Amino acid sequence: MLLFVRLLSIQITGQAEGRQMAMMAEAKYAKEAILKAERGEIIDRNGEMIASDTLSYRLIAILAESATEKNAKKPRHVVDYEKTAELLSRYIDMDKEKILSQMKAAIAKNTEDYQVYQTEFGKAGRDINHETMLAIKEAAKNEDVTGLQFIEDKKRFYPNGDFASYLVGFAMKEEGEDKKISTVGKMGLEKTYNDLLTGVNGKMDYKTDFWGFVLPKTEKQIVAAKDGMTIQLTIDKTIQNFVEDAMNQVNQQYSPEKMLVVVANPKTGEIYAMSQRPSFHPGTREGLTENWLNDAVENTVEPGSTMKMFTLASAIEEKKWDPMAEYQSGQYTIYDKTIRDVNRTGWGRISFLEGFQRSSNVSMAYLLERMGDRTFIEYLKGFGFGEKVGIDLPHEASGILLDINPSERLTTSYGQGSTVTPIQMIQAATAIANDGKMMKPYVIDRIIDPNTEKVIEDHKPEERQSPISEATAKQVREILASTVTSDAGTGRKFALSDYTVGGKTGTAEIPNTKGRGYLAGDGNYLYSFLGMAPIDDPQLLTYVIVQQPKLEVGQYGSDPVAALFTSIMESSLKYMNIVPKDSGSPASVSLSTTVGKEASDAFGEMQEQGFTPILIGEGGKVISQYPEKGAKLTKGSIVLLQTSGDTKLPNFSGWSKKMVLSFKMLSGLDIRLNGDGYVVEQSLSEGSVVSKVDPVVLQLQSPEMKHSPVKFEDESEEEEEIIGG
């Protein structure tokens, strides 16, 4: 009777000893599995990887003897602490004694009521790659070491190594207040966009039996993980690599204190490359110094004579420029301040044009007299100096325009005293390169939700109000080109072999941080060049700074600057398929459009014009083509024609990376690239029909390592030899 009453009571109330039986059963048999979200990817303008999550492992040593079942053939816990510590010390960044003491210290905490089950090894035991995990398992098996387990985890992976490091920054594992370990951005874009990049973990609820097996016919309740946002940059991985390689070479040869390079598209304001030295590997932080600033945005410099191009533009816009008028070079005095030209005595009585070509400070003083120094300062404000450009990067500095007295306005005209950021110089120069249209620089192209494939932010070129006209911009470019071509020009070292270039050199003094005034002595200057090419219609704008290079006898500060600029610009313009100046290369033809035409007709039309058409799809009407109408191509160049249906693979041999990426974009195929340069091998043969889920692997090599490539757009065999030289 008592048993019956007890059962009836439990059945009616659902309680036993004051506890809800349903809740107890739920707690005993209901399980929850965490579905981990991936941190968002950072990719370049073509979708190539810059930063992503990759599989890693966390090392655990099982210490509790209870982990091993009775009569088990092999222990599941650590038996030999000495041998275990010795083995692990060979594979993780922790010495044997420390590993041993950590395991023994954990065991020492055991009591009658509490037993330590496992221990981990901090940073040394996290982010272990797959190869190391397998090696530890194999060694443990061979050496009869037990109790080691691995838990799958994620770590941040930077496949390009030292690559735009101060722009991208880095993320690392960090333990939060809740004792949970997560990946947190600590610098650069990883930190600025940490909230967007951080995903939201999901979960799966399910029920198990006493032994932990999932009960049949029970529903699993799944809350899907939401991966972090994908951030697509305006950075072009290939151009960025040109910059990194050139900086490495110059760093090895000249060992400067600092270097900076920014490459931009002057027509849109997109930043194609941004790097500085010293730099570091974002995965290991090797090379990271006490400087955590992105110098292109967060630091200011005195620009030196590169500022003269904006003084010149202001004078031309004010109609105060007379290139053939003469002045007495050498020195100029205003009140109690005397300024001098670089050679101190000048070149006698010369024209203003020659004065600009020789980078005469005195010529700037006379230009200020003509247009008025306060008017000049207003022009500089119109170019964006003295205020932030509003780039999509944090902690932007604004620089300072000195405007208290006439002598400060005078020194500002040739780039001394006032300070600027390199990104301000880029923005101001777009007005000259882009026919008077000044463009706001930006580095974020799009932010994409990978869970829905929706674009949540789409950044577009933004035009700023410019202080100069199209006519002024063109005239300034002609004068900038003369600094490179004239015998009197300071920019002769910056001439390109295949493209016309214009720009302005700069040699700025460096403020003495230990006292007043500036540093003195050979090489204690900040050397720079702000240049654009091709000068008739600039497609690239590049700003190079080299600070305090180590110069040998006969070397000049402009040497490392020129080595950077010419290497980066020549390679980048060729990669972009920009038609070189007329130097015996085949004549270019303006491409017509075939969109809307039948594929067979479009094929014939392209062939008649001397191009090589490649069909994407099965045929029918042409949906789109690449390059688009109006592009100037040399005969023999490939033109991609997109139609609907399945695509047969062409022979990719000799294709440039840029053309392969264009084919990938139009076809939607899963094409994977190994290496840089031009295609030498493909995983599937020509004519194969593949679906969009079948991977096609292409092997690329740099031009100097392969035979003559196929011509694309405006490329020729002669040009490819130059790239490899």
From TrEMBL:
Keywords: Membrane
CDD domains: PASTA_Pbp2x-like_1, PASTA_Pbp2x-like_2
Domain of life: Bacteria
Residue span of region Disordered: 705-725
Subcellular location: Membrane
PROSITE patterns hit by this protein: PASTA
Gene3D superfamilies assigned: 2.20.70.70, 3.30.70.2110, DD-peptidase/beta-lactamase superfamily, Penicillin-binding protein 2a (Domain 2)
One Pfam assignment: PASTA
Domain called PASTA: residue spans: 585-645, 646-702
Segments crossing the lipid bilayer: none
Amino acid composition bias (Acidic residues), ranges on this chain: 714-725
Family (UniProt): Belongs to the transpeptidase family.
Protein name per UniProt: Penicillin-binding protein
Source organism of this protein record: Sporosarcina oncorhynchi
Lineage start: Bacteria, Bacillati, Bacillota, Bacilli, Bacillales
